[in-house]
Amino acid sequence: MKQFIYILLVLIFVSCSSREAKNNYEYNSATENKEDYYGNSSSKNKYITIATQKLHDYNDLLKLEKQHPELKTDITEQLQSLSETKIVTIDTKYTIENIQQVGETETLSDSVQKIKLKYSLISKTETKEDSITAFIKTTTILLDGRNNTANKITFSKN
Predict the structure, then answer these.
(1) How far apart are CA 35 and CA 107, in angstroms?
(2) Do residues 134 and 157 touch, judged by C-beta distance below 8 A?
(3) What pLDDT, in 10s, does the model give residues 95-154?
(4) Which residues contact 50 (CB under 8 A, 6 or more apart)?
(5) Global model pTM greater than 0.70
(6) Which of 12, 33, 113, 118 would you call most buried, defined as having the most Cβ atoms within 10 angstroms of its Cβ?
(7) CA–CA distances in Å: residue 127 to residues 58, 59, 87, 98
(8) pLDDT for 116
(9) Rounded CA gap, 41 and 144, in Å?
(10) What's the rounded Cα separation, in Å, for the pair 35 and 91?
């Protein structure tokens, strides 16, 4: 029962994060010129925002796994889905802040973007800099007669 509650809490957290991103999308599409929104500059900003959010989610899952070892199998599956090859470890005593893009967004194919991110790992006693690579796979889905874009983020250690 306890495991079910923890899994439910993680799902609520993730769905609330998705809802906030959806609200931002609606706001942006209503207020910006469509050429600007779908152009390269704003698409890059959208990718950075999504990658930043997922990196925070990834770190939260690592902390949850450490605090609740009884949920290890479920959390490991979620971590694996956010990892390119193997689970990237980030020390859980730190919080991630100051996430910034390093260099330009690299296009690997029509549907895959590669972004290198640097971030600060902050604890009560020290601050360290680290970096990670985010791969954003974009898929167009036809839903209710409209084309929608789905993004999948995976991380790989540099």
Answers:
(1) 20
(2) no
(3) 888 888 998 888 889 889 899 999 888 888 889 898 888 999 999 888 888 888 888 888
(4) 21, 136, 151, 153
(5) no
(6) 113
(7) 19, 16, 23, 11
(8) 92
(9) 28
(10) 41
Spatial separation of the C-alpha atoms in residues 143 and 138, rounded to whole Å:
15
Tokens of 82: 């956010």
Q: In one letter, which amino acid is 57?
A: D
Q: Enter the DSSP assignment of 89.
A: P
Helix (H, G, I), strand (E, B) or coil at 24: helix
The token duo for 92 is 């859980």
- In single-letter form, the type of residue at position 131 comes to S
| Residues in the chain, total | 158
Burial 53-85 (b: 16+ CB within 10 A, else e): bbbbbbbbbbebbeeeeebeebbeebbeebbee
User: Is residue 116 classed as helix, strand or coil in its secondary structure?
Assistant: strand
Pairing of strands 112-122, 127-143: antiparallel
